Structures are given as structure tokens and as C-alpha cells.
């Protein structure tokens, strides 16, 4: 097969390995912490899990400087545990997901909150609020063999300019890693290269140019980014 042109392959660093993890797709879980669901005006008891996606090339490395994105005046941070899939999975049982998980990382789901809420209120997809350029910072992936099992608990923390904004425990997730991977695999076929952002705890909030953002998941890793001015001198 001959292609008209080559496309770059998005990828994420792997801790302790010179090779990088190629990114195929990015799945995200919406409102997976009860307190965050409530701060967004939703009922975590009545609402089942739901998923949205980001393009693979939305991923950016730890240490990146990200221009403040266009079309928004309300860019938000969301600290997340990221699951990296290392093998094909279709209709996989929750107690078998360890067989297909390559590793874990700390991630930040950057969100154009004003656009997301406009879309939500109008019953439209969230793409313009979630799936924009450089909206998926991801730290180095720690291979599952170095984690010692599926992380069902552990501190997740995000700071902006050294001030704590989010502080919670992975045990607070409504749907844990096993359930999330299993649920997604029953809707689509997962494959090596897929990333899953597993949801954010309470405390989300705005970012402005000049902010330094650090997300850490204990026992997994850290991702840090800087928010730069809008590209091209936009306001």
C-alpha cells in the first residue's frame, strides 16, 4: 500500500526506557469522582460512567510549555491517572485487565471549560471543549511490572504555582481501573497504544498564562507543564 504522505506518530516517554510508547487513541472517563461530579452539578449516584476521546496528537510530554489555547477564556486543569494499554482487548473481564495493561502515568486533562459547558447545556458533543491541540499532557509511563498490581488507591495531587488545587485518593474513583478498562473494551476493541485518562477529583479550576502546573500520582509519576501566552499574540 502506498500513501500520499507520511504522518507523525504521537508518543509518550517510558520511565527507564529509551523507547517511547506510540499513542493510538486517547479515551477519557467523565465525572469518575463523586465530589467532582457534584461540583459540576451532576449526581454521581444516578449517572452511569461515560467516555469521550481526544486525538492521539493531543498528547504532550512532561516539561512542555503549552500556548494558551484559542476560543476560550476559561482553560481548566484536571489531574488524572492514565492507563496505557499494551495488548488487544475485546470484551475483557474486569479481573483480567492486568493482562493487557502496559503501565500507568500521571496526566492532565486540559479543558476549555466554557466551550464544554456550552456544549453540555445544548446537548452537543464535548469535542471543542476537550479534544484540542496539546490538551493531554502525560508524564512518563511506569511499566505495570514496576507498579505491583492495579493501583486501586494512592494519593493524586495537582498544584498550580506551588499551591495545592487538587488532593484526593484513587480509591475515591467511582469506577476503578479494572472496571474502566473492561467497560471500554465492551464498547470498542482496545489495542496496544491506547491511553485511558481515568477521571479527575474535585478542585478543578482555571489557568492563565505564566502558570506552572504539576500533577503527581504517588507510586506512578509526575507530569509538569507551563502555560504560555496565546499563540500569535492573541488576547
Essential attributes:
about 240 residues, globular, mainly beta, 6-stranded mixed β-sheet
Describe this structure in words.
- The chain is mainly β and 235 residues long.
- The radius of gyration is 17 Å and the shape is globular.
- A six-stranded mixed β-sheet has the order 4-3-15-8-9-12, covered by helices on one side. Strands 6-18-17-13-14 form a five-stranded mixed β-sheet, with no helix packed on it. The chain has a three-stranded antiparallel β-sheet with strand order 10-7-16.
- The longest helix is centred in the middle third of the chain and has 9 residues, at 113-121.
- The model has no long low-confidence stretch (mean pLDDT 94).
- It has helices spanning 34-39, 113-121, 127-130, 177-185; strands spanning 11-14, 17-22, 25-30, 50-54, 59-61, 65-67, 75-77, 79-85, 101-108, 111-112, 136-138, 142-143, 155-160, 163-169, 194-197, 205-206, 212-217, 221-228.
- The protein is built from four helices and 18 strands.
- The N and C termini lie far apart (45 Å).
SSE inventory with pairings:
Blueprint: E1 11-14, E2 17-22, E3 25-30, H1 34-39, E4 50-54, E5 59-61, E6 65-67, E7 75-77, E8 79-85, E9 101-108, E10 111-112, H2 113-121, H3 127-130, E11 136-138, E12 142-143, E13 155-160, E14 163-169, H4 177-185, E15 194-197, E16 205-206, E17 212-217, E18 221-228
Parallel strand pairs: 3-15, 5-11, 6-18
Antiparallel strand pairs: 1-2, 3-4, 7-10, 7-16, 8-9, 8-15, 9-12, 13-14, 13-17, 17-18
